[in-house]
Amino acid sequence: MPVSESIHSNITHLSLSEGALSLSSQSSASPGMEDLQPVLLELAVKGLPEQQVQAVQTLLITLEKTPDLTTNQVFELTSRTMPELLAKPEALANVFKYLNCRFMINEQMKCTVEHPGFQYKHSLRGSVSSLSRLQAENNPLESGSESSFRISPVLTAHPTQLNRPESADKLLKGLPAVLSGQKPVGEFCSELWNVVGPRPQKPKISDETQCFRAPLKHMMEASARTHKLIRDAMVDQGKPPIQKPVVEAGNWISGDRDGNPTIRPEDLENALKQSCSLAFEIYSNKLEPQKDSKPDSLPNLFIKAGNKQHLNQLRNQVEATRKRLLHHVPANTGEAGFRDPGEFVTHLKTLRDDLDWDALDIIDQDILDRKLDQLMLSVKTFGFHGASTDIRQNSEVNERTVHSLLKAANPNADYLSLPEDDRISLLNQVLNEPAPLHMEGSLTSNQPDIQLELDFLHTYQGLRERFGPQALQNIITANTETPSDMLEVCFLLKYAGLIEPGKPSMNVVPLIETVPDLKNASRLLKNMLENTWYRGKLAAEGDIQQVMLGYSDSMRSNGITAAAWEVHKKSSELTDLAAEYGVKIHPFHGRGGTPARGARPEGYSKEIAYQDGASLMTGLRQTEQGEEVIKKFGTRALADKNVAEMVTATLDTSARGSDTQIRKFAKTMDWLANKADQTYRELYTPALANFLKRTTPLEYVALSNAGSRPASRRANLQGQEYLDKLRAIPYVAAWNQSGSHAVAYYGLGKALSDYVNQPDGKATLRMKELTQMYKEWPFFKNLIDRSATALGEANIEVAGHYSALSPDTSAIFEKIRAEHKRTEDMIGLISGDNFEVKESATDSLRLFAHAAQVELLRRANRSPSQADLLKKELAMSIQTLANALGRFG
User: Fold this and answer.
1) How far is CA 58 from CA 21, 62, 193, 846, in A?
2) Angle at Cα 213 formed by Cα 211 and Cα 219, nearest 5°?
3) What is the C-alpha separation between 556 and 275, in angstroms, rounded?
4) pLDDT digits (tens, 9 = 90+) for 278-317
5) pTM for the full model?
6) Rounded distance, CA 644 to CA 125, Å?
7) Inter-axis angle of helices 796-803 and 71-87, to 10 degrees?
8) How far apart are CA 670 and CA 67, in angstroms?
9) pLDDT, tens digit, for every residue of 724-754?
10) Which of 154, 555, 561 is CA-nearest to residue 392?
C-alpha cells in the first residue's frame, strides 16, 4: 500500500482543545504509555508555526498509530516530510526530542518491569545453599579460600552514554513516581522534555566523576546488602559467616589514561576523594544520631547495651578520619581518628567485647551481633577508599617512560633500541637490586605525555598512603605483548616507591586484546611465571595473577567468532598453566555494552554462565560502561538486582567446574574460528574504511559529546590505518546505527555453512554435531545466541538505504547482505528456532529515526558546508538512534 493511502486509512483523529492534543484511541504495549504520549505530543508542537505544527502532528501520529508500516513506506514518508521539518529546525529538533523521550521511557519501563525485587534474593540464597554442600576446599565462600575470591563490577567512563546526565536523572527518579501515582504525568514529561537531547558540549573529567557518584554509591551499598544476604544464607546453612569481602566495587574513573590521555593527577585525586566520601557516607548512615531511638538499629542497640559514650566516641573518630582524608583538617586532641581501616575494625571488636550483652534479650543480641558483623565487613570492603580505582596505560607509553628515566641516569642509554632479551635482562637487573630506584640527573621530559607519566608516578605512593593500598590496587597495561611490557610496569612502580620489601605493591595486570596477542598469551604467562623476580612478587601477593581479556579490539580486527573463541579458550588455558606454577588466575573481562563487544542484553546470568567454571574459582572482574552503568546501577533496586545476579552467576558457574567441552569440540571450533576470521579479514580492508565513512554516521560520532576523551586515538588517517586506529565504540556504533549490526555476526554464517558443506558428503553428520554443540556446550550456545540477538535487532532493508548513499561501495553491502542471510539460515538450523526479527527493529518510530539520519547524511555528503550546517541535527539523530537501539556501541 502506498504510504499516502496508509496514512489516510490509519491516521488517528486529532482534536485540539485549548492547546491540548489528544488521541481518540491509543494502543501501547508499555503500561502507562497511553497517558504519556498525548502530553509528549503537545510538547512536540508547542511554539511551532502552524505549518510545522501540522507537519509534526501528522508525522508523529502516523508513526504512533501505524507501527507496522514497512521500511520503504517510512523512508518514503520521511523523504517527503524532511524538507518541511528542516525549513524550521526547531520542528525536526522537537521530533527527535519526542522520539528520545519515547525510547528512553520504554527502555526504563522494561528495566523496571523485568527486574522484580524478590527474585534475585531467592536465587542468591539458592546458590549459597548449593555451595554449602561442596567440600570446603571447593567452596569459594569458605574461610580457606575466601581471601582470593572477589567479584567486582568495574565502572568505566567509555563514552557510550549519549544522553545528558540531567535527563537520565529525571527519568530514573521521575518515572517510578509517575507509575506509582506520586507525580503528575504532565509534570514529569515537561521536566524530561526540558533536558532531553545531546550534550551541548564535551564533559570535563570532573563532570564525568560527578556523574558516576550516584551509580557508584548504589553499587557500593548493594555490595553491602549482598554481603548481608550471603552472611545470613551461610549462617542458615550452619556455616560460619563470611569474614572478608566477596564483592568489591571497582572503577576506571580518572584512572584510564590509555582511554583518556587528558586526565591529570589532580583528576585522579578528586575521584579518590569522591570514592572515599561514599565509604564514609555508608559508615555515618549506620551510626547517625537520628537512629538512636529507632528500634533494632545499631545505635539503638548500643545504647540499650549501655554503651552510648562509646557510641559517641566512635562517631567522633569516624568523622575525624573523614575530615583528615577529604579536607586535610587536623583532628582535635583525643580525636585523632583511625590510622587505617584495620584499626577501625579492631576498635569495633573492642567495643563488641565491652558491651553489656546481658542487658539485651536473645533476639536483640542476635540482631546486634549481625549488625556489628555487617559494619566490620563493610569497613573491610570499603576501607578508606570506597571503590578501588584502576590505572590503565598503553605499553608504548610505558616503554618510552622507562627509556626517558634510563636516559636521565645515563645519557648514552638507548632502551628503545634494545631487543626483547636485552630489555628483560636490564629490567631484571634493576628490579633485583635491593636498594630503592633513584635516578640521577634531570627527571623532567620535554615530551608532554612522558612528563605527565612522571607526574603521575610521583603521586601514587602518597595517594595509597592516604586512602589505603586498595585505593590504587591494579595497574593495567593495554596492548601487552611481551614480558618486557609487564616488567616495565614493575620498573616504574619501583621508581614510584611502590616495590619495597614488606610493603604491598600494585597488581601488574596485562590487558590482552587482539587475537594474535591472545594466541600468544600462554607463552607470555609462562615466561613471567619463570621469571624469578616476578614469581617472588606474586608469592608476596598471595600467588594471584590478574589477567584482563579484551573483547573489543579482538572483535574489531578479527571478527566476533575468532575473538570469542580465543578469549574463552585462553581463559581455560591460562588457568591450567598458572596452576602448574602454584598460581591462580583472577580473570578480568573487558566487555562493552553490545553483543559485538561481549555483552548480552539479558544481563549477567547470560554473560557469565557460559564461561569455564574453573577460571572463576577466584571470582571475576568485569567492566561496565556508559548506558550500561545507568541500566544496572542507576537506582538502588537495579543495583541490588544486578550485584546479586553477578554474584549468583559467578558462584553457580564456578561450582560447575571445568568446561570439559573445550577439549571435545576444540578441533571443530578452531576450524570455525579460522574460517570466520578469514571471511571477516576479507571484509576488513581499506575499502571498508571508505564504506563506513560514506554510508554510516561514523564521521559524525564526535558530535555527540559523549565523553571527555578524544574521539579517536589519531586523526587524519586513511584506509587500513584508519580502521586499525579506530576505537571499537564508534566502529560498532556505525554498524548498528546503519541497520546491519554486521560486526556481531559477520563471518560466523560463512564458517558454519562451509563447515557443514565440505565436499566429503558428511553434511548431515556435521549439522548434527553443530546442533549437539548448541545443546551441550554453553560457550557455543552463547556465541550463537549473541549473534542471534544482533540479527534480531538488524534490519537489512534499512541497511540497504544507508548503502545507497554511496552506490560505488555497493559490493561491500552485498557481502553484508549475503552474510546476514547465511547467518540467519544457519542459526535457525542449529538452534531449531524459527528465526524472527524483533518487533522493535521494524517499529515505525525507530524506522523514522533511521530514515531521518539517512536524509541528513545524504545532504551532509553533498559538501563540507552542508555537513557543517547540519551538525546539530546529525548529533540529535545519533543520540536518538542510540536510545532506539538501547545501546550505542
Assistant:
1) 12, 6, 20, 17
2) 120
3) 33
4) 999 999 999 999 999 999 999 999 899 888 888 999 999 9
5) 0.91
6) 10
7) 50
8) 44
9) 778 888 899 999 999 999 999 999 999 999 9
10) 154
